[in-house]
Design the sequence.
């Protein structure tokens, strides 16, 4: 009986460690010396790596987003009658890759053009500097 108890405890420990290591977490805000493009790539790398059951809520706790943008995302999601899209990715599916390709900074605001692994899919990410840190304040279609 001791053998099975030890095996069970070991299995629980291994599974717990695997879940902890495998769950991508974003702790704190981007360092003050991070560029807007680096901030965007850090956020989106974390976001698209989330398990599907967490992608619809985990962004709420991200320090990379302004409170105003979180509220906008909430309003957009609440307006969906059936289905919808991800307002952070401007897509229905999750791409394999998101890459910042162009950055424009003007004072305490920045605009980063982002391309995804979907053919022809790109969008603009607006950032605002808050307390020396870049935070995502909006996402809109690229024109």
Sequence:
């Amino acid at each position: 009986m001791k053998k099975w108890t030890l095996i069970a405890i070991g299995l629980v420990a291994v599974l717990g460690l695997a879940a902890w290591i495998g769950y991508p977490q974003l702790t704190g805000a981007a360092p003050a010396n991070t560029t807007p493009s680096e901030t965007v790539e850090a956020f989106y790398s974390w976001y698209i790596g989330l398990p599907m059951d967490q992608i619809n809520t985990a962004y709420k706790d991200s320090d990379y987003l302004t409170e105003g943008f979180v509220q906008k995302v909430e309003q957009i999601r609440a307006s969906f009658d059936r289905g919808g899209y991800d307002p952070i990715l401007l897509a229905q599916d999750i791409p394999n890759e998101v890459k910042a390709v162009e950055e424009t900074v003007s004072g305490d605001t920045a605009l980063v053009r982002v391309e995804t692994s979907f053919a022809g899919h790109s969008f603009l990410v607006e950032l605002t500097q808050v307390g020396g840190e870049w935070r995502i304040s909006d996402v809109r279609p690229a024109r």
